[in-house]
């Protein structure tokens, strides 16, 4: 059958010429790993220029530094000092969250920002330590080595984990596997961050209540048991001081939120709290009445820590695992933050390049007594609002931190831990993004449940459990989409040759004697059997409907393959079986708009000839015209077929 | 913007009315778990009839037994005796493969076929033990308990594993999770079975060469080392006998393959070999010259084995794991075989019902000294060719095996093990399906590599490794499809309002000033960033092309969403960002044919209003008409927009 029984097809669906396997592999690899075509700018350039462009590609500072002006510097200086005033108290606070000496938190705000300023491609990102990652470090590493019992070994593990996090980040970037980060969906991140913020706040009850012993577990039940199990040890001095500062910090946050120009109130509040708190303790000698203070901080810059990387430790696997998880979370947050602010200023961020920058900064950090850093949202927002123009603001911040390390550390001696707790709480409360949760609920219930699963997993189980639950549920959705694709019956939109889903378009009408089905996903092994069953059901349901309505019996089944972008061998067998089934019922199968890959495989499996070239159409409209033509002019030719059909139905 | 700048849309894309969440959940659950609508026949029936139909649904024998005739029985009798002659030697052989006493192999051909005859929905399936599953049992359970050192405990573990396999199979059926079996793609099964056949053959070198000690590992390297490490222990008597019988069996197989009517030659050959082999040994007393024989077999029917189920064994987890893996493989083969033969006779097999039948038969089997049974392809093919009409042939086979158990077991005393090895080899050689491999290579290279990975994994690693590699690679393909969906530029097919991919249709032409992009997959978190980057690249590539060709500059970007069946919140944000980007470049975004779910979410997120209702079209053709209308009649209105664009590009 070259043509459908006398009907001459108006358009031909071509079989694509077969490409050599290597060529098509190359094309798909390029599409998969270089969707942004980074080599574009190198085309048709002299070799010297290519070299320069290559250097600029890997070290973006070379690209923008020559264009840097004094005008920009003034803006960056203000922004840099602003974020430094945030970086110092946050660095100390988050270090306590990671159960490491506070000085390491300061070290971590010195070297990494300098490295990022060289390699980063964002203009607004403010580098620093991250609350969630800090907590994750302490909860994962604290399980194998006690931070209080064996502080030296614990700190070594922290550096080692940081090293592996950096290594992972850099490798992901170099291997262009950045898309792996995309598998952490927005819903997952919202739920996960919310859960992490909740447990971080709960952990701060230790500092707020002045407790000395506290559980190492992070789940709700353990923490509450730990808090209420030692009511008699609560210290009211600590609690009062903490609540005052928390109230102060939340108040400043509230004002800053109402007016963007008041961002500096929020930015300066932590440092103000630290200074006020230290003064209060110094003057009242509260450290002798149950208010714990930081104590001595060593003066001086970051000591090298290459020899502390514990590659031979028996806990190396734990360090690697911690590095992988914290590294990915750091990346996910950092890249999302970078992209958000890049959108405001309309420039582009290259995810893979960012990963390399993050990786370099953490590898360098792990060798200079820093722990894991990323691009926290809060600090970046302050940087942005303070009017930063480039990464020079990070350099200014690093310089300010350096000066602090060299001269000002003794001033933190009397800083009460409870102020640090208040700072942490007020910072992570911003991670409880209830508006995003409402948005998820409104738009996509499934995403909402993913988010909820992540939140509950983190709060009731552990950070790792929450993360793995959320990722599995998200993946399940993708798998389910492919395993159970939708099929829809199409009908004619009146006064047109257009065919659309009858569910969606209530005005669409059935075409007598013809069933038009649309398949909404690639046909793969995972859904081939399902589709066969579902399509059979559509056919007998339509036959039943026509019979009970006393209409023309079914003669043609048209499959609209517009949305079938891909097919595998199981899919091809499914089509073959379907054709046989349809044939046996005395019906004729027609295909509409098969895509290039489907045509290629139909051709290779000789299925085109079995279906008949004339039964493959460019559009559903044409397929219907052909079927109608046959129905009305060639009724006699179908008698034999129907006779056969009756035979096989007996 | 209600209409696109003066252009009146011809068709409206409706926003589907929002359904209550529970209602839509119910619909999707029904689609996911009951695609074949099994309740259809119950509709509008009186209660009594409903009960009868329900019983018949769960116990299909009630449905077909009343219609059974003597005419059918004659056919089934012949088929039943034929498969019994295959079942007895195969039962004994496969039991040796599973390292259990040969009598259990016979037991397993008695009870399970009777149970399956009641619950099964296939008419042609011949129940029996399976080579691959037998080997898997011995390789997995043999690792924790030695079959020779502690035979009693080993057999208990085998029964326990069988019990859990049955439990899993029945639960999958009852929970309607049958689709999980579909995740074993055809390519995976071909590679896996080929690999298993290879290692089963290699294992038989033990029997063929009369070796007493042999490795428990199944991989190529270990087996070859074991074989060539003890060359001095090879027994030529055994080898000669084995090769003769193997030659005989392969010869009969060759003849049967050439002519379907000669199927009985192949079916009778194993029994003939057993009889001949036993006679030779009995007459020559070869058992005293290095030819190992079966020895004593107990007379009598299956003893109960409920008390042997070792639920308190320390190796319970291994038994459960073995049960899960063997159960799934048994199911996958059994259902595929059932479906294949059902297609020949044009009846339908309900996968979930089959699973319940398999489960019942294995649970019952594990309580009556049987090990795992399924529906092997070879035996079913013989049954089919012998003209079976119903599952009564299984009952006949079971009766014949019963008679053997009661009276004929002593006859197997002198049966040489080497004959069993020949029977196994000739049976599993049929699993090396090189034609299917060539088919895979021709049609889908990716499927071919999946198949190869499964084969190499099994042969070089272990059965479990092969299986998990193949499944992961298959899943990776699905994930990659979703993570890296194709996008294509559409062009106009001359003399029509049809737009198709310019790659596929070389006759398609660009539309001046308009870029039409098609997205080929649902937009999910896993691909949202990729799509944003890829679409941006399409836009700047088109702008470059137009600039260098000196054509009309780009004004409109039309997204054809026909193939976007689903979208999540990340996808919605992606569209929102894309709209902003396009806007910033001074271009206008239009959407064509958004599907019902996309429209719903566009509406809920207020994105419809942001894009403008007038910029959402039913077809690409109409979108292009609207853009052209604007381009030619309203040029002046765009000047302002372009001006803005220049500003923001600076």
The most extensive contact between chains is: A-B, 86 and 87 residues
Secondary structure: helix percent of chain A: 55-70%
Amino- and carboxy-terminal Cα gap of chain A:
28 Å
Shape field of chain A? elongated
**In the residues of chain A, how many domains can be counted?**
2
Q: What's the Cα radius of gyration of chain A?
A: 32 Å
Alpha plus pi helix count of chain A: 26
Main sheet characteristics of chain A: 6 strands, mixed
Q: What is the mean pLDDT of chain A?
A: 86
Assembly type: homodimer
Number of strands of chain A: 6
Q: Uncertain runs of chain A with pLDDT below 50, 5 residues or more?
A: 636-650
Structural class of chain A: mainly alpha
Lateral strand order in the biggest sheet of chain A: 2-1-3-4-5-6
**DSSP strand content of chain A:** under 5%
Question: What does the model show?
Answer:
- The structure is a homodimer of 650-residue chains.
- The first copy, chain A, is mainly alpha-helical.
- Chain A has 2 domains: 62-233 and 300-413 and 422-434, no CATH class; 485-649, Transcription Regulator spoIIAA (2-Layer Sandwich).
- In chain A, 62% of the residues lie in helices and 4% in strands.
- Chain A contains 26 helices and 6 strands.
- The first copy, chain A, has a 6-stranded mixed β-sheet.
- The longest helix of chain A is centred in the middle third of the chain and has 30 residues, at 316-345.
- The two termini of chain A are 28 Å apart.
- In chain A, 52% of the residues are buried.
- Chains A and B meet through helix 1, helix 9, helix 18, helix 19 and helix 20 of A and helix 1, helix 10, helix 19, helix 20 and helix 21 of B.
- Chains A, B: It is found in: Membrane.
- Chains A, B: This is Sulfate transporter 31.
């Amino acid at each position: 059958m070259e043509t459908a029984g006398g009907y001459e097809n108006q358009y031909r669906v071509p079989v694509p010429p077969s490409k050599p396997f290597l060529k098509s592999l190359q094309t798909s690899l390029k599409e998969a790993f270089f969707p942004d075509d980074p080599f574009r700018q190198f085309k048709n350039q002299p070799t010297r220029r290519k070299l320069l462009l290559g250097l600029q590609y890997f070290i973006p500072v070379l690209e923008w530094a020559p264009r840097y002006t004094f005008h920009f510097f003034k803006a960056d200086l203000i922004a840099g000092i602003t974020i430094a005033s945030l970086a110092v108290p946050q660095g100390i606070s988050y270090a306590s969250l990671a159960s490491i000496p506070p000085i390491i938190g300061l070290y971590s705000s010195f070297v990494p920002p300098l490295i990022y300023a060289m390699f980063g491609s964002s203009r607004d990102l403010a580098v620093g330590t991250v609350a969630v990652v800090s907590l994750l470090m302490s909860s994962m590493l604290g399980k194998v080595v006690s931070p209080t019992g064996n502080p030296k070994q614990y700190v070594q593990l922290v550096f080692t984990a940081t090293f592996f996090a950096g290594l992972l980040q850099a490798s992901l970037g170099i291997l262009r596997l950045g898309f792996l980060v995309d598998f952490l969906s927005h819903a997952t991140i919202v739920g996960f961050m919310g859960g992490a913020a909740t447990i971080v706040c709960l952990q701060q009850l230790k500092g707020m209540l002045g407790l000395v012993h506290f559980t190492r577990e992070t789940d709700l039940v353990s923490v509450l048991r730990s808090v209420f199990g030692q009511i008699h040890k609560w210290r009211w001095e600590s609690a009062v001081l903490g609540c005052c500062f928390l109230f102060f910090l939340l108040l400043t946050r509230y004002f800053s939120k109402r007016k963007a120009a008041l961002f500096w109130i929020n930015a300066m509040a932590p440092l103000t709290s630290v200074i006020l708190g230290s003064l209060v303790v110094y003057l009242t000698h509260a450290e002798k009445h149950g208010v714990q203070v930081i104590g001595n901080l060593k003066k001086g810059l970051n000591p090298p820590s290459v020899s502390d990387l514990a590659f031979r430790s028996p806990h190396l696997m734990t360090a690697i695992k911690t590095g992988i998880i914290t590294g990915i979370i750091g990346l996910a947050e950092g890249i999302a933050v970078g992209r958000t602010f890049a959108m405001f200023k309309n420039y582009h961020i290259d995810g893979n390049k960012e990963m390399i920058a993050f990786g370099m900064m953490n590898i360098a950090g792990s060798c200079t007594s820093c722990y894991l850093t990323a691009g926290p949202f809060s600090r970046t927002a302050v940087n942005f609002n303070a009017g930063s123009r480039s990464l020079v603001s990070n350099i200014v911040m690093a310089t300010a931190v350096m000066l602090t390390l060299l001269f000002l550390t003794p001033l933190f001696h009397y800083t009460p831990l409870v102020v640090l707790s208040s700072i942490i709480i007020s910072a992570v409360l911003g991670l409880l993004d209830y508006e995003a949760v409402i948005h998820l609920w409104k738009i996509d219930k499934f995403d909402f449940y993913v988010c909820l699963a992540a939140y509950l997993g983190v709060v009731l189980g552990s950070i790792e459990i929450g993360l793995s639950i959320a990722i599995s549920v998200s993946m399940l959705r993708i798998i389910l989409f492919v395993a159970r694709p939708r099929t829809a019956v199409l009908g004619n939109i009146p006064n047109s040759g257009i065919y659309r889903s009858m569910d969606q378009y209530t005005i669409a009408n059935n075409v007598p004697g013809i069933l038009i089905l649309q398949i909404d996903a690639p046909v793969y092994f995972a859904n081939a059997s399902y589709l066969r069953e579902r399509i059979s059901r559509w056919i007998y349901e339509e036959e039943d409907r026509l019979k009970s309505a006393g209409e023309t019996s079914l003669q043609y089944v048209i499959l609209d393959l517009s949305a079938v972008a891909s097919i595998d061998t199981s899919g091809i067998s499914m089509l073959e079986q379907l054709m046989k089934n349809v044939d046996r019922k005395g019906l004729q199968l027609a295909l509409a708009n098969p895509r290039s890959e489907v045509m290629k495989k139909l051709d290779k499996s000789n299925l085109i000839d079995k279906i008949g070239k004339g039964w493959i159409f460019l559009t559903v409209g044409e397929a219907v015209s052909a079927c109608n033509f046959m129905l009305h002019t060639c009724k006699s030719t179908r008698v034999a077929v129907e006779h056969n059909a009756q035979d096989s139905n007996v």
